[in-house]
TrEMBL record:
Species lineage: Bacteria, Bacillati, Actinomycetota, Actinomycetes, Streptosporangiales
Gene3D superfamilies in alphabetical order: 3.40.630.30
One GO location term (cellular component): cytoplasm
UniProt-listed InterPro entries: Acyl_CoA_acyltransferase, GNAT_dom, Ribosomal_N-acetyltransferase
Name this protein carries in UniProt: GNAT family N-acetyltransferase
Key word DNA damage present: no
Domain of life assignment: Bacteria
GO molecular function: protein N-terminal-serine acetyltransferase activity; protein-N-terminal-alanine acetyltransferase activity
Keywords, alphabetical: Transferase
Organism: Nonomuraea phyllanthi
């Protein structure tokens, strides 16, 4: 789309493709949400959308992506990728920036269909979006946050090289729960072989990094 070049943006890694989702990709993400994202009794999200019934999980997945498309501005943006493994959409990986042209700081967030856990996909898709942040967007920092009991997310964050950056308390379903914050500086990022960004240039003005 000439007026929305994000539709052509993608990142490739040795095993994955991260691409701006088509409507068919969103339908597939809805299927992954329906199948389940985490074990019963867990809640990795501040907004407990994954506790809804399967049909509502699918609809809210699509609605979330539609909202991010409509709300994107050069000063406050979120780019949510569909993650494709062996030809199948398996989850989503996001990167967000607020006043990025000044702060040069991004946040990341993601989820992966439960049946695809334990295969190293979460680590590889996080490394992919960090490649976009540091090699593509010339970020200075990347930050991430996860509940203390979200052990898989914390393990990925530590594995790829973030440093601890404090805690934040939240009301999660009526109980006080801490999230652990993490930060990675550009000088601590280690570029991985086989990671490539495609069609970023036309997208830069939408992210506040060039003339509109």
């Amino acid at each position: 789309m000439r007026h929305w070049p994000l539709t052509e943006l993608s990142i490739t890694t040795p095993r994955l493709v991260l691409r701006y989702p088509s409507l068919d990709d969103l339908d597939a993400l809805g299927d992954r949400a329906t199948e389940g994202i985490h074990e019963e009794g867990e809640m990795p999200f501040l907004v407990p959308w994954s506790a809804a019934d399967p049909g509502e999980r699918a609809r809210s997945t699509l609605q979330y992506h539609f909202r991010t498309w409509g709300a994107l501005t050069a000063n406050d943006w979120s780019v949510e990728f569909a993650v494709v493994f062996e030809g199948q959409v398996v989850g989503t990986q996001g990167i967000m920036g607020t006043d990025f042209a000044v702060t040069r700081e991004v946040k990341t967030g993601s989820w992966l269909g439960r049946r695809f856990h334990g295969q190293g996909i979460g680590t590889e898709m996080r490394r992919a979006v960090l490649h976009l942040a540091f090699a593509g967007l010339e970020a200075r920092y990347a930050v991430s946050e996860a509940f203390e009991d979200n052990h898989s997310s914390l393990a990925v964050t530590r594995k790829v090289g973030y440093q601890e950056d404090g805690i934040t308390m939240h009301d999660r379903q009526g109980k006080p729960v801490a999230t652990r914050r993490f930060r990675m500086a550009r000088e601590d990022w280690k570029e991985q072989p086989g990671f490539e960004i495609h069609n970023l240039g036309p997208c830069l003005p939408l992210l506040g990094l060039g003339p509109a």
